[in-house]
Amino acid sequence: MKSIHRRAFTRYGVALASLAAAGALHAPLALAQAPYPTAKPIVIVVPHAAGGAVDGVARTLAERLAEDLKQSVVVENRPGASGLIGAASVARADADGYTLYFNASIHAAAPLLYKSQVKFDAIKDFTPIGMVAEGALIFSVNPQVPANTVIDLVNVVKANPNKYSFVTSGYGSAGHLGIAQFVSDVGLGDKGIPIALYKGAAPALQDLIGGQVHAMMDPFLSSLPHVQSGRLRAIAQTGRVRSPLLPDVPTMREAGLRDFEFYSWYGLWAPAKLPAPVLKALESATERSTKSAAFKTKLNGLGFDATFRNSADFNKYIISETAKYQAIIEKAGIKIE
Question: Given its phi and psi angles, is residue 66 left (phi above 0), alpha (psi -120 to 50 degrees) or beta?
């Protein structure tokens, strides 16, 4: 009788062990097949300091994505080296959809300037998810600069090239390339006028307001409050039409530069080789978020237009913009010291 009980107990134990082993084998599989994005919060890496234009658009998008995907979406700032540090960290991350990357047009431009320092390929090492916004820049001057128009500024600087300087929030930013194109187009390229590099819009604007530097192109989000308060004077804007936020300020074309049109654009990426189902989920959520009334209203108030491009179209756009920036850099002779 003891033998029968022992055999029954042994069979029972083997059965339990088999079930436990089967559960252990299938647990990771079940987790891997969990519907995206239910496993954990999504982190969007912004490779710039908090408070700037990129950060502002990213946080607006993160709010909409969190609501659409029913998952926490956290923005993490990793600034440095014109966005290269944050971008490199995402390029090395797992392509599981839980680490994303949000940046502006500087993503395409900075690698062209920092060739020896770049540890990633701006196109091949990322999966474009979608473009979400674009915005013109405000061309503003310190109020002490005797210029109310673009032509005034050109004449003033040409007359005293050693007295004036331009400023940019970072090498490769839209404002930097916009200023470089402007200097080249109006014949100031051989005057040796310095373009001061700052780490972010906030310190650049602070010194522009203080008069240490004299002119800057910068997104509406960070410059508009200073223009509205009178701390800066807007002499032009770089879009194809005037912004309703500055209806009395002419476009660069209206100011006499017929071929000048420049934008800062913003988009969302993931590491390369993102699984197709995850890309589809993120692309669809990004499209819905970008086209939502709440997103459009918020961005319009910040001086941006909600402009969606899907993954394939965004990839083509990045390639074309990279070629455009390369031409500006070569024509202006921009070199990183």
Answer: alpha
Q: Token digits for 56?
A: 């502002």
Instruction: Place 33 in a pLDDT band, splitting at 50, 70 and 90.
Output: low
What confidence score (pLDDT) does residue 190 get? 82
- Please identify, in words, the CATH class of the domain defined by 42-134+263-332: alpha beta
Q: Which of 133, 327, 104, 153 is nearest to 252 (CA)?
A: 153
Torsion angles phi and psi, residue 112, rounded to 5: -75, -25
Q: How far apart are CA 210 and CA 145, in angstroms?
A: 12
List the chain domain ranges.
Answer: 42-134+263-332, 136-237
Q: Give the span between the Cα atoms of 186 and 257, in whole angstroms.
A: 8
C-alpha 82/C-alpha 175 separation (Å) is: 12
**Tokens coding 85:** 């540090």
**Residues 182-210, mean pLDDT to the nearest whole number:** 90
Q: The pTM is what? A: 0.82
Q: What is the per-residue pLDDT across 61-115, written as a single tens digit (0 to 9) for each?
A: 999 999 999 999 999 999 988 889 999 999 999 999 999 999 999 999 999 998 8
CB atoms inside a 10 Å sphere around CB 128: 24
**What would you report as the CA-atom Rg of the chain, rounded to the nearest whole angstrom?**
26
Across the chain, mean pLDDT equals 89
Rounded Cα gap, residues 139 and 179, in angstroms = 9
Least trusted range by pLDDT, from 199-203, 214-218, 258-262, 277-281 = 199-203
What phi-psi label fits residue 170: left (phi over 0), alpha (psi between -120 and 50 degrees) or beta? left
CATH 3.40.190.10 describes domain 136-237: yes
Do the beta carbons of residue 130 and residue 268 sit within 8 Å?
A: yes
Find all residues with CB under 8 Å of 36, minimum gap 6, and list them: 97, 277, 278, 281
